[in-house]
Specification:
- There is one protein chain.
- The protein is mainly beta and 161 residues long.
- The protein has one domain: Allene oxide cyclase-like (AOC barrel-like, Beta Barrel), CATH 2.40.480.
- It is built from one helix and nine strands; from the N terminus they run αβββββββββ.
- About 14% of the residues have low confidence.
């Protein structure tokens, strides 16, 4: 009986050791991160009440600049629609979709965000892409400040063609 226990214990140790040497199947590949600055050229389509109101459409586009070299690395286009506006107009809920076009493909994204001075950040889901980004997943985040917006594309699930 003792020999059987020792054999079983050695078998358990061997299996556990083998499992520890295999990378976890749930590990995600390293993300490709694209960061660029843009000063969007925006236009508001004021649909209902004068000023910020539900239904208004905010269209923005701009050249994406590499923060280190200031080279243009892509073109960003975003369309947002206001779905709720605070009574004092200090914030609004937006539903947005957009795309980043680069020389090697396109990344599309969508989501909602609360926007206002007290809510300077937003995050959206990458919904697809073309070219080098045809299998892309991940997220897009933005941070507003007085002069410009910073957009960060964290792209995962890229597969070689």
């Amino acid at each position: 009986m003792t020999k059987m226990r020792i054999t079983f214990a050695l078998l358990v140790v061997a299996v556990v050791g083998a499992l520890l040497t295999i990378p976890a199947l749930s590990q995600q590949p390293a993300a490709t991160v694209i960061t660029f600055k843009t000063i969007p050229k925006g236009q508001v389509v004021d649909l209902l009440d004068r000023g910020a109101s539900v239904g208004d459409i905010v269209l923005s586009r701009g050249d994406g600049l590499d923060p280190e070299t200031a080279d243009v690395v892509g073109h960003l286009t975003v369309r947002c629609q206001r779905t709720k506006v605070a009574a004092d107009k200090s914030w609004a809920w937006l539903i947005c979709d957009g795309e980043l076009r680069t020389t090697t493909g396109k990344i599309t994204f969508a989501g909602t965000r609360r926007q206002g001075e007290a809510y300077p950040t937003g995050e959206f889901a990458i919904t697809g892409g073309t070219g080098d980004y045809s299998s892309a997943g991940g997220s897009v985040s933005t941070e507003d400040d007085a002069a410009r917006n910073t957009w960060i594309f964290e792209i995962t699930d890229l597969q070689a063609p």
